[in-house]
Structures are given as C-alpha cells and as structure tokens.
C-alpha cells in the first residue's frame, strides 16, 4: 500500500512548493490539495457534524491549480493531485486545459480527484443548481475526457455542449490522468463505475463493505484510495487487507514546524504498520 498526504494550501501557512519538497524528501508518494473558490458568508449549509462553524482554512486557500503547479515545479517524483476539485463549479473546457497543463508540466504526475462538494450556496454562486449537481458532474467529466482524448473534440449534453474544438496540450498520461471520484453518498459507486479510475472516499468504517461491493460490481480494474486516514497502524492494516491502493492523511495548514510534527506522527504510524508485516 502506498501513502500520501492531503493539505489545504492557505496563503498564511507553509507554501505548496516547500510542502511538496518536504513530503517528497520524507518518502510520501502523493500530495493532494483541497479546493474551495470561496466560502459564502451566509453559512446556511451545515458543516460536518451539523454545526455552522467552519475551519478557517476553508476560506483561505490558494487557487487549486496554481498551488498544484507550484508543487509540481518543486518536485520530481511526487504525485500531485486534487483532493478534490469541485468540477460543478468550473468551466469544463478551462478545467480540461488546466488538468492537461499540470500533467504535461509535471511529466505525467497528476491525479484528478473530483466531486460535487457539499456547500449548496457555493454551488449556486457558480450557477449550479444543487438538485442536478451529480448530472452536471458527470457531463463535465465526460466532456473533459473527450477534450483530452480527441484531436477535435465535441460534446452534446443537457448541461455541457460544444462543437468541434481544438485544445492542447493533451495530458502525458493517456487517455487522461487518473480520475479519483470522491464522496460517500448513496450513488457514489455508480459514479465511480461510470467514469472513475478509482474511488477516493474519506475514511470511516462504512467504506469497507462498500469496497467489497465496488469490487463485485466492477467489470474493469478500479482502485480505491482513501483520504483522511487516521495515524493508526491497525487502521492502515485493515485498509491494506481491503486492497486499498493508497492511504493519505490530512496535514494541518500551519507553519513548517507544526506540519513536520504532524507528518512525523503519520510516518510513525506507517512505520508501525510496516513493522507488523503490512508494508
């Protein structure tokens, strides 16, 4: 099993480039950046446990693809990815160009974590009706796949439509970078099977029977990666036994000393897991 980290790349914490160099030097395999274009001040949509309190990092992130470019430029082996890109808030033609550009500039090291998100006001501010967000997500992913794949791409859907466009560069990874479908909602496995390379859920106990369900339904190879994994060797062993390809843990958005302490705790859990025969 491989290991990585996730991070909200905020302007007042350790920067994306220095962080990427650090985690590459320390042997992590991947770095995922979260995305929020903004946070609506109304705060009508509850967060997490149902409260309206939202951690400060959510409204202070750099642009996702700017941060990814800095991380890619600072490293040579590290996989860099979105964890997750809120595709329903983005123009698919522009996003396809950004994905292909980061993949090209990184030499084929990009992983495209995607999802619809949870903040209803944030979606509406981008013109997306939350009631149809999953349909929008699917069409935008399919449209981007056409752009990456075809020399002269077109797409005709309910929410996305364009005729005969040229868009270059194409991604280094063919036919496109891995598409990691985030989420744990009731229909997420349908989306993984429809257009995903892998399922990319947040960790909780409920994912284990669903991993088995995904395997039983899949007619092609589909990986599972997990983000927000705890620094617990027993959990890492269980993920390994379930066939999870990579486990990643969030690091705090903080100065370097705080980030390093959190990374050391994650590394210690990995070392304990490996010492128990799971590595």
From TrEMBL:
Keywords, sorted A to Z: Flavoprotein, FMN, Monooxygenase, Oxidoreductase
Domain of life: Bacteria
Enzyme Commission no: 1.-.-.-
Enzyme class label: oxidoreductase
TM region(s), chain numbering: none
One family name in Pfam for this protein: Bac_luciferase
Species assigned in the record: Dactylosporangium cerinum
Protein name, per record: TIGR03619 family F420-dependent LLM class oxidoreductase
InterPro entries per UniProt: Lucif-like_OxRdtase_Rv2161c, Luciferase-like_dom, Luciferase-like_sf, SsuD_RutA_monooxygenase
Domain Luciferase-like positions: 19-223
Molecular-function GO term, any one: oxidoreductase activity
